[in-house]
Amino acid sequence: MMNGYDVMSAALAGGFRAAIYCRLSKDDDQQGESASIANQRDMLESYCEKQGWEVVAVYQDDGYTGLNMERPDLKRMLKAIERRQVNLVITKDLSRLGRNYLQTGHLIEDFFPRNGVRYIAMNDGIDTLRENNDIAPFKNILNEMYSKDISKKVHSSYLLKAQKGQFTGCVAPFGYRKDPEDKNHLLIDPETAHIVRLIFGYALEGHGPNYIRRRLEERKLPCPTWWNRERGIRNVRTRWEQQDPENGKYIWDFSVIKDLLMNPVYTGAIASQKTEYRFKIGTIGSKRPEDWIVVEGTHEPLVDKRDFAIVQRKLKSRQRPGASGEPSLFAGLLKCGECGKSLTVRYTNAKHPQRIYSCKTYNAFGKHHCSQHRIEYDTLTSLVLHKIRECAAAALMDGEAVADRLTGNCEAEQKGQREALERALAKDEERIETLEKMVLRLYEDMVAGRITENNFDLLLAKTQKEQAELKEKAAEARKRLDDEARLAVDAREWVESIQEYRDIAELDAATLNRLIKEIVVHETIDSDKTRHISIEIHFNLKPLPEVEQVTG
Questions:
Q1: Per-residue pLDDT band at 469 (split at 50, 70, 90)
Q2: d(Cα 266, Cα 176) in Å, to the nearest integer?
C-alpha cells in the first residue's frame, strides 16, 4: 500500500502516472480476442481515461508465460518504477502480472509499496490503495495451480507426439524444413541439405568439429542462425556476426557442429524428450542419448545409418583423456592475453609427441582470429616453479619491505592520503543529507503556494542532479578507501602464505590453485618469425603480477 508521503507526491503531480501492463502467453491463444494484447490495452487505456489518470507508458510481453518473471517489458517497467517515473500499475487481472505466486506476491506486498506504487488488477477488484486485497494471495496460488495443470497437459501432449514420431520443435533442424501440409513432418531443404552432407563427409574422413568449422568458413557457407534470420524464422545474431557483420555469418560454433553430427534426425529418425524439465524451474539438464524417445523412418534421411554410426565412433575416439584420467595441472588457470579464452593442453603430431598449451580460439578458428600462444608444458611448469621459489625467498629475506613495495607507498604517505580522502567523503555525505532536506522543503513550499509548479520542477531537477553526482563520487571514494585497506591486508597475507614454498620441488594442482589466480600468456611475433612469449603470473592476494619472458 502507498504511504502518505507517496500519496501526497501523486496528488502534487496532478494525479497518478500510470503504467499499463499487458501479457499474452501461448495458453491464451485458445481464449479468443478477449485475452489479446490489443484488447487488454484498449480496455485499460479507456479505464485510465475515465479516472483522469495520465498513461505514461504501455508495457506488453507477447508470448511469455506468467511463470517466467524474466520478461523484457516487465523488467523495463520495474526499472521505470525504481526511477520514480511511474506510481500506478494497472493490469486486466492478477494473472497478467504473473502466475508464480511467490514472485507475484513479492511485487504486490514488497516491491510496489517500497517504491510508492499503487497496483490495480481491474477484473479481480484488487486495488492496493484500498483495504480489499485479502483475496489476492489466494488468487496468486490459484493462478499457479492453473499453470501447473496446463503444464502437465502440454507435457502429456508432447510426450504423445514424441511416441508417434512427430516433430514438435519450433525450428526445423538445419538441412530440413517443416512440411507446409503438416507442421509435425520434416522435408529436405534443398538450399541447406548439401551443407549437412558436406559436414558428415568431413567427419567420415576423421576430422573433428574444429577442423570442419574452419573449412566451412573458408568456403563461406553461412551458419544456421543466418539462414533462420534470412527466412524470418528468428531475429538473432551470433556473437561473431555482432563483431563482424560482413564475415561473422561464416563462423560456425563448435557446439552447433557437434550437436548436428550427433543428431539422429539426419538418418530419418525423430529423437525427442532429450531434456529433463521441471515445473517453474524449466530445463534442468540433458538426458543421456539412450533415454531419448527415438522413432525411426519418419522422414527422408540425409545420411546413411552406417555412416552415422561410424561418425559417432569417431567423435567418441577423439575425446582423449589425460594419461592419468585426471584434469590438466593448469586447468582453469591459463588465459590468452589477446582474446581472453583459455589455453588448452594438446599433443603435437611429431614422432615423439610433446605436450603443449595453445589458445582455444586459435585451435578452433585458426590464425585469422588469434595466434597460437604456444608454450610447452615442461617450460611453463619450470617457469612457474622458479617464480614461486623466487617470491618465497624474497618474502623470507624481508617480508615487510616486499609488502610495502606491493602497496606502492610508504605508511606515512598512505595515512595522509587516506585521511584526506576520508575528510572529502564526510563533506560530500553531509551535503547529500542537506540536499535531501532541501527536497522536502521544496515540496512544502509548492504546497503552500510559495513557488510555482514549474519552478518546483526546475529546482527539483537541479537538486536531484547534484545528489546523483555526489552519491556517485561518494561511492567511488568508499570503494577507493576499501580497496586501499584491502590492498595492505592482502599484501601482508600474501607475504605470509608464500614464505613456506621456498624449497618446493614439484608442482601439484592443489598448490597452484591455492597460490595462483590466473596465468595470462601474451605472444608477439617478429618480422623474422621469432615468437616472444610473455607470462603474467597473477598470485592470489598479491596486487601485482610476476612476469617471465620466453623466446621461441
A1: confident
A2: 9
The strand pair at 54-62 and 126-127 is best described as: unpaired
| CB neighbours of residue 425 within 10 Å | 18
Considering the entire predicted model, what is its pTM? 0.42
For residue 455, CA distances in Å to 225, 302, 377, 460, 465 come to 54, 73, 71, 8, 15
Continuous segment of H or E residues that includes residue 313: helix 305-317
How far, in Å, are 115, 199, 212, 214 from residue 253 at the CA level?
Answer: 44, 13, 10, 10
**Helix, strand, coil content of the chain in percent (nearest 5):** 50, 15, 30
Please report, as a single letter, which amino acid is at residue 251. I
* Helix extents (H) in 373-508: 377-397, 399-407, 411-447, 453-498
Map residue 290 onto helix, strand or coil. helix
Q: What is the amino acid identity at position 134?
A: D
Which run of H or of E encompasses 266?
none
The residue assigned the cell 588465459 is 335
Beta carbons of 178 and 290 less than 8 angstroms apart: no
Quick count: other Cβ atoms within 10 Å of Cβ 410?
9
Would strands 375-376 and 334-336 be described as parallel, antiparallel, or unpaired? Answer: unpaired
SS3 237: coil
Show Cβ contacts of residue 171 under 8 Å, excluding neighbours closer than 6 positions: 228, 233, 234
pLDDT tens digits for range 299-343: 899 998 888 888 887 777 555 444 444 456 787 788 998 888 888
Reduced to 3 states, what is the DSSP secondary structure of residue 187? strand
Q: Residue 127's beta-bridge partner residues?
A: 120
Q: Give me 379's grid cell.
A: 617450460
Distance CA 174, CA 263 (A): 11
H-run or E-run covering 376: strand 375-376
Q: For residue 7, name the pLDDT band (cuts at 50, 70, 90).
A: very low
Residue labelled with grid coordinates 527539483: 460
What is d(CA 66, CA 23) in angstroms, rounded to the nearest whole number? 8
- Spell out the long-range contacts of 186-190 with Cβ–Cβ below 8 A and sequence spacing 24 or more: 186/265, 186/270, 186/298, 186/299, 187/299, 187/300, 188/300, 188/302
Whose CA is closest to 251, among 227, 226, 217?
Answer: 217
**What confidence score (pLDDT) does residue 20 get?**
94
Nearest 5°: the CA angle 452, 455, 458 is 150
Render pLDDT for 517-537 as a digit per residue (tens, 0 to 9). Answer: 888 999 888 888 788 888 888
Q: For residue 351, which phi and psi values (nearest 5 degrees)? A: -60, -40
CB 53 within 8 A of CB 87: no
